Amino acid sequence: xKSNHLTEVTPTATENLVFQYTNDLMSVLNQLKSADVxxxxxxxxxMKEDRGTLYICGxxxxxxxxxxxxxxxxxxxxxxxxALQVEALAANSSVLTCLGNDIGYDNIFAHQLKVKGQxxxxxxxxxxxxxxxxxxxxxxxxxxxxxxxxxxxxxxxxNAKAMLDLPFHFCxxxxxxxxxxxxxxxxxxxxxxxxxxxx
Length: 199
Description:
Order of helices and strands: HHEHEHHEHEHEH
Distance between the termini: 71 Å
Structural class: alpha/beta
Largest sheet: 5 strands, parallel
């Protein structure tokens, strides 16, 4: 005989995870201010006009995101070649292992800026915590050179937040969502720059 009671369907652990993750991501993206995006777009366009270079750095997943965004800003914003001069400082493994071995991992980005950086260039740091020493040393070096500094940060922003000219701070205690915000902001910038450069 069939029961008249309805079977209650409970969400699986995966369903709960998907719901929580996507909601947290949407919530944190609401912290993004379009006025700050406009400011950064104008900084990048001025840098391009002055033939400056955008340097991007980060550790781990943020290093991979830096390389990804360097690709987008080199080609994605203008497939015809009217793009940005951009370099991901984590992209050359020989340079990184040399500097890490000889002068310490904390200096792997700062030393590259010391060699290459110029006034009018921009440093973009990608950091979940904002506390990595190689990130804060890179910011210090960029400021010494007269470069502008921008960052995409998670958690409480860390030490880097107060050091930056323009911090994009997404306040969330989750490294994966922090890394997501780096790429999402980068793609917003890519689309905006594509429009600006292809009018």
